Structures are given as structure tokens and as C-alpha cells.
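Supplementary Methods, section 5.1.

A reviewer requested that the exact input to the structure prediction be made available. We therefore reproduce it here, unchanged from the version used in the analyses.
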Amino acid sequence: MAAIVAILPLIGVAAAALTGETATIPAGDIARYALTSAALASLVAVSTGLVGTLAAWLVVMHRFPGRDFFSWALALPLAAPAFAVAYAYADLFDVAGDLRIWMRAVLGFDLPFEMRTLPGAAFVLTCAFYPYVYLAMRAAFVNQSAQALEAARALGCTSRQAFLRVALPMARPALAAGVALAVMETLADFGAVQFLSVQTLTTGVVRAWFVFGSLTSAAQFALPLLGAAALLLWIERWGRGGRGYESANARWRPLTVAGLTGARAALASLFCLGLIAFGLLVPVGWLAIAFLDVTPDWPRLLQAGANSLTLALLGAGVTVILAGALALGSACTPGLARLASLGYATPGAVMAIGLLVPAALVWRLAPGAAQGFGAGLIMLVYAYAARLMAAALEPIDAGLSRVGPSMVQAARSLGRSPAGAAWSVQLPIARGALLTAGLVVFIDILKELPATLILRPFNFDTLAVIADNYARDERLANAGWPALLIVLIALPAVVWLTRKIAASRPGDPT
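The structure derived from this sequence is encoded cell-by-cell as follows.
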């Protein structure tokens, strides 16, 4: 059942693209948007891979001022939505950079507008999404064999050579998984790229629906995203399944940590601090300064905040219940889990378009049944659950792995039904994992924009929607208030999660 929840919107996208009315957008535009998406994803993949890997290597293998703080604080930019980072840097300076003078002097011609704005968008998304690579690589480096690194040093390798020849190849699956997650988020982003005038497939999906009112065109924009989602999901799963290059006997030996002194220690601290500053402190600080002279519309902000919290809590609860059922159910096979995971790689805009197809069918069969405030909320929560179920499934699976078969068998021998055994034994033991899964989904829903824009009931605004509306009107100071409120609501959950992750890695040298 849970897998069907995740896959139904994707079937709707394919049905709308292949069986709908004639598209109103030329195929050339779809190809151009796809090329822009590919270029942006490539830039973000390279940049997040570089900075995330270097930060993880410094924190795991070296001792320098602030290392214990940076080990968990480097993931804090996850609390800031990418669109908030884009608003701040766009107001602070032109992140896209006007390259016309340079191009005319050196190249003799101008690049298309999207190519001029790509560097700024890649910078913004790198600041927002590098923590995915950092967390994956930190876990990989912490769990590597100490003996392999010691053997490399004994054979004459320097620290840099040991990193390039031994540590990095062993962590390659984790690097692929982390970069795949960052690229998934890049392809799913709407608020930042739309504000920076980068025409990606996700902006095409939203534009086709809102401007042209064409479900078929929106679905045709979504089809390449589905293909990219399937590829990225395969890469991410391959990464998760291939982290076992270490020796089992030496896996948990504490790693030898090299102390940095002088200029090297200062550079390491500045590098880590710079990542946190560019990803969180500078954009949030600038937004805070920018809106000081603006009187907020408090009734509207408070109502939007209440709507955001309601959706986040409701969506997190439904998603955790479905993910828990998928993890506990006897019919849960690896194939079904992978099927449900496809939703996590699929942008929210695609999920929303996919849900409009069955909603339209219901409306034809029972006019008015798929409309109204309640129907809009149901579809919104459905879209959140379908997209984020895999994000909740990972920690729940890890928590349930602590429950041995003998525990369940003991409960069954005492007369408990399968559901009773799950309620009284498995779920209490996995309580921490359930909380972790709920917080992960809660944070993602707070920042979700395209699915909310498409499916929300009339006159139902969230903080992300209000920020986007202000930004479209070029009222960035006003957009700072809802964007900062999202950060303030999400930050405590992110701090708790990152500190728990930093303290729970077996073999951590700290």
C-alpha cells in the first residue's frame, strides 16, 4: 500500500504526457530546459563533491581549532531553504555576474542568458546542498579501515597521497551517494532557480501549469526529470550498498588523527567556518539586516506560519506511519522499498502534476469531489508523503534492525498479534529512529515550495509561498521575514539531528 502511494503520482505523470491533449510548448523549449538543468546539476555535483569531501576529510582525520564544533555544525545550512540563500545573495550582490563585457572582449559574442546566470545559481545551490556530501563522506571516512591508511603511510605515502590513493577510492560509493542526493535536490529546486532566472525543467513544469494551464506540457517537462530521478536513485542506492571496502577486523579501530598547527590549522578552521558562513550565517544575517526597516504583516505571517507548521506536522506524521508500515509489513521486499524510494528522487513539482491526473478523473466521475479546501490539503499531504517516504524509511529501517527476531517471537508466543508485537516491542525500541525520521520529513516539508504552489487550496499560504510571492514582486526585504522564520523553525531540529549524527558514528575518533 505504501509503495502504491509513492508510485501513483509517477503513473499519473506518464499518463498525462502520453495520452493528454496536444502540448502548447515546443519540444525545443523542453530540450533547452533539459540542457540547462544538466549544466546546473553538473556544476553543483562538482562543487559539492569537492567542498563536502574536503570538509569531511579535515574534520575526521585532523585536529585543529574548532574541530569538534565543525563536526556537526557543517550540516547546519540544511536549515536554510535554497530560495532564502538566493534572496540574500541577490540582494547582497549580483551572484550571477554580468559577463557581457568579458565575453565580448575575449569571446567576441554573448552567451545565452541562462549560461550567464548558471554560475550564481550553482554557487547558491552549492552553499545549500554541500551538507549532503559532507555527511555521507564523514560517515565513510570515520568507518574506514585504520590499517589501510597506516599501510599506505608505511609504504611512503604522504598524507595527501594516502587520501588520494587509499581513502578517497574506498569512499567512492559514499561520494556517489552524497553527490546524487545534492543533484536530486538541485533538480527539484524551484524557488532559487526561478528567482535567479535559470530555466530548468522544474521551472518549466510550474510555468507550463500556471502560465499555459497545460497539464500535458507540464507532464512532458516532468518526464525527463523522472528519467533523471531513476538514474540518480540507482546511483544513490549503489553508493549505499557499496560502502564495505574496509576490513571487518579493523573497521572500528580509532583512526590516527594528525594535529595541524600554525597556518595549516588556521586555514582548516577558516575553510570550515567559511562553509558555514556562506551557507547559513551570511544569508541569514543579511536577510535579518535587510528586513529591519520593513514592518511585517504580522497577521499574514502568523497565519502562514501556522499553516506551515500544520502541514509539516501532519505530513511528517502521515509519512512516518506509511514508512513504518512499509518497514514492518511482511510484504515489504527490497523491490517495494526501491519503488517507494523513487519518490524521494522526484521533484515536488512532478509529484504535484502527477496527482492532478487522478484528481481530474475523480472530478469527472464525481464533480466537486476533488475540489475544495479539504481536497487540496489531502493532495498536499499525499504529495509530501509520496516524495519523502524514502527519507523516513532509511532511519526507521536502521532503528528496527536493533530488534532481533527472538524478541518478536517472544511477543507472539505470549499471545500478541503481529500488529500487537510491532506496537509493544518493535516500535518502542525504534522510537528514536521514528523521531529522527519525523524530523527529517518535517524539515523538508517546511522548505517545500513547488508542490505547495501547485496543490495548495485557494488563499492557503505557507511561509515558503509568501516568501516566493514577495520575491516575484522584487520585495526582498519583505521576503526576508518568512524566509528567516523558516530557518528559525527548522534550525532546532537540524541542530538536534546533526549532533546526534556526529555522536552516533561507531569508530568516530572524536
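The beta strands are 62-63, 258-259. These observations are discussed further in the main text.
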